[in-house]
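#onboarding

Welcome to the new folks! Below is a worked example of what a typical request in this channel looks like: someone posts a single protein sequence, and someone else replies with the predicted structure as tokens. Don't worry about understanding the tokens yet, we'll cover that in week two.

Example request:
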Amino acid sequence: MKLKTGDKVVVIAGKSKGKEGTIIKTLKNENKVVVEGVNMVKKHLKPNGQESGSIVEREAPIDASNVMILDPKTKKPTRIGHTTNKAGKKVRVAKKSNENLD
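Example response:
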């Protein structure tokens, strides 16, 4: 998975199509990401000793193939490529503008 926590992404498919947000969490084994404010679901919480039961809204994981990273220069969706910098370290770059993402 080429996406990391903190990346700005836009949803390209599903019920939240067109929404933008930052990645809160990545689930590499399931190839899913949790994006802030996207794919909101209602979670029913049981009452425990201190709190009463309630219904809260929270973000659910979305498949990584349904999001694209936003190009830092043009602010449009782009694919991610890899290249090496002058120090010889492998870095992520935006395909549209060749800008570093790291």
